[in-house]
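User
New here, help please:
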Amino acid sequence: MTDRLVRYEVADALATVVLDSPHNRNAISTRLVDELRQCLSDAAADAAVRAVVLTHTGGTFCAGADLTEASAAADATPQELAAQRTARTTELLRSIVELPKPVIGCLDGHVRAGGMGLVGACDIVVAGPDTTFALTEARLGLAASIISLTVIPRLTSRAAGRYFLTGEKFGPHEAEAIGLISEAVPDTKKAIDDLAATLRACSPQGLAESKKLTTMRMLADFDRWADDLAAQSARLFGSPEAVEGMTAFLQKRPPSWETGA
């Protein structure tokens, strides 16, 4: 099948999952989520797989939610669409966190909004020199509701306070300094090869049980806060400010609150 949005291959005990939808900057669409979750399920079930690499084609790792998909649906309210999208995103992030094998994020492109949630869900993340990050929700009249479950635990409190509020862009070295990624690297292929060799020396049971220790608190936050955050997301997506923000984004113009209109 040549029109897949997510590609999957296994070699040398490593499953490589590639977001391959560069035409929309690997935006989180229904189809991409379904294909990505299937790849993760395949990796979990394959005894030959020791670890998973989540990477991308094109200059963007993931641009966040597919806003064109949301705007094209005429048979549901914005709140209903937001609820559906949030449920899919929650399930996807949780499937990464719960996967009984290490997930390594390999980035060398732009990461925005919901893409940040994917980065936060990975156990180890390496980022090349062309990587940039931003939590842009506040600029659209939204908030990083569900993805806060995986992003906030990775950041220092000062960094979370800054980047959740400003939506400003930052690079891989800053991302490493504040804990979002494991390492900023000049060569992502070499970094992945080195990590894969290290993980192949670990037992499957040792990796699975050790990962439980590092993710148990994050999963407890999913249990405690996911419903409240989903309700916040649905409420915000149906608000006039968010409609204006997303419309302005799609039309490539400043929103009304920026221009004073």
